[in-house]
C-alpha cells in the first residue's frame, strides 16, 4: 500500500520534507496523483520539488514506476 510518505520517500531529492504539508492539505494519495502545479504552489512547495512530484505521479499513474517498499 502506497501512501503520501512512501511516495515522497521514493521520489527522494529532499521532496520528503513536505510530507506533513501535503498530508494536511491534500489528505490522501489518490488525490495527490491528480493534483495540479498551482495547488502545490499554493501549499508552498518549491518549483524543483513540484516538478519531481508531478513527474513521478505521472509515471506512477502509467504504471512505469513504484516507490521501493523498504528504505535504502
Automatic annotation (TrEMBL):
<dbReference type="InterPro" id="IPR019083">
    <property type="entry name" value="SAM_Ribosomal_mS41"/>
</dbReference>
<dbReference type="Pfam" id="PF09597">
    <property type="entry name" value="SAM_Ribosomal_mS41"/>
</dbReference>
<feature type="domain" description="Small ribosomal subunit protein mS41 SAM">
    <location>
        <begin position="4"/>
        <end position="63"/>
    </location>
</feature>
<protein>
    <recommendedName>
        <fullName>Small ribosomal subunit protein mS41 SAM domain-containing protein</fullName>
    </recommendedName>
</protein>
Amino acid at each position: 500500500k502506497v501512501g503520501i510518505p512512501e511516495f515522497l520517500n521514493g521520489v527522494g531529492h529532499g521532496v520528503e520534507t513536505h510530507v506533513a504539508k501535503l498530508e494536511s492539505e491534500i489528505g490522501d494519495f489518490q488525490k495527490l496523483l491528480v493534483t495540479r502545479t498551482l495547488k502545490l504552489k499554493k501549499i508552498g512547495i518549491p518549483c524543483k520539488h513540484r516538478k519531481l512530484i508531478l513527474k513521478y505521479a505521472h509515471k506512477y499513474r502509467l504504471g512505469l514506476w513504484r516507490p521501493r517498499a523498504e528504505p535504502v
